[in-house]
Amino acid sequence: MRPAPRRVAAGETLRDTLGRLSTAQKGAAGAPAYSRFLNRRAGRLLAALAFHAGLTPNAVTGISALCTFTGIALLALVAPSWGLGVAVAGCLAVGYALDSADGQLARLRGGGSPAGEWLDHMVDALKTSSLHLALLVGLYRFQPVERGPVLLVPLAFCVVAAVLFFGTMLNEALRAQHGATTRAQRTAGRPSVVRSLVVLPTDYGLLCWVFVLLGAPVVFLWVYAGLAVLTAGYLALAALSWFREMGRLPR
């Protein structure tokens, strides 16, 4: 098979690149609705633009991290307001779209490297925990609501998010190691749309936009706590399913 070009071919338009990207997507099994239908498409456009700009996947990962951690820093350093909410949500959402773009760009250029994949996952691991901890710092510093048990919610969400991220990565590694089909592999059948909608509350992309509500701290905290509870419930049920699945893998 002829390897994909690392540079834009003569005469290739942005539309041509987008067409090639549409055939180089990962599988969508188990992907929540926002990540599957919105973020991946936004990432596809950004990947095509990055390809024409001559950027490398690691450069896109770096830009993604800059956007994401700008939003996270704002949570800890600036008092809650509607303006802050829009800024945080925008930074996180753009960072998430770029997080999708770096992998798509790597596939477009002929495949990523282990170092690039390591960098991508390390950034993901850092943002998964630091987002909730930055919110905790902001709630403690600026006291938009009365201090008390409410400060335990970001701590609990941090633990749940970190375990969910680690479990997802570990599952894929064990499936690949034992020759089972991974979620990233494309299959002949179309992944369930209903399932993508059911697991939407666990979607990081949805969480990004919830921060728009920071201008109404009480409303934000109720919605945020609701996502924390639903994500924790999903993790508990998924962990049982994952354990049974891992038990069926060959030794």
Automatic annotation (TrEMBL):
Example of a GO biological process term: phospholipid biosynthetic process
- State the source organism's domain of life: Bacteria
Q: Which InterPro entries match?
A: CDP-OH_P_trans, CDP-OH_PTrfase_TM_dom, CDP_ALCOHOL_P_TRANSF_CS
- Keywords in alphabetical order: Membrane, Transferase, Transmembrane, Transmembrane helix
GO terms assigned for molecular function: phosphotransferase activity, for other substituted phosphate groups
Transmembrane regions listed in the UniProt entry: 45-66, 72-98, 151-171, 192-214, 220-243
Question: What does UniProt give as GO cellular component?
Answer: membrane
Pfam families found in the cross-reference section: CDP-OH_P_transf (PF01066)
What's this protein's family per the entry? Belongs to the CDP-alcohol phosphatidyltransferase class-I family.
Protein name per UniProt: CDP-alcohol phosphatidyltransferase family protein
Species assigned in the record: Modestobacter muralis
Q: What is the lineage of its organism?
A: Bacteria, Bacillati, Actinomycetota, Actinomycetes, Geodermatophilales
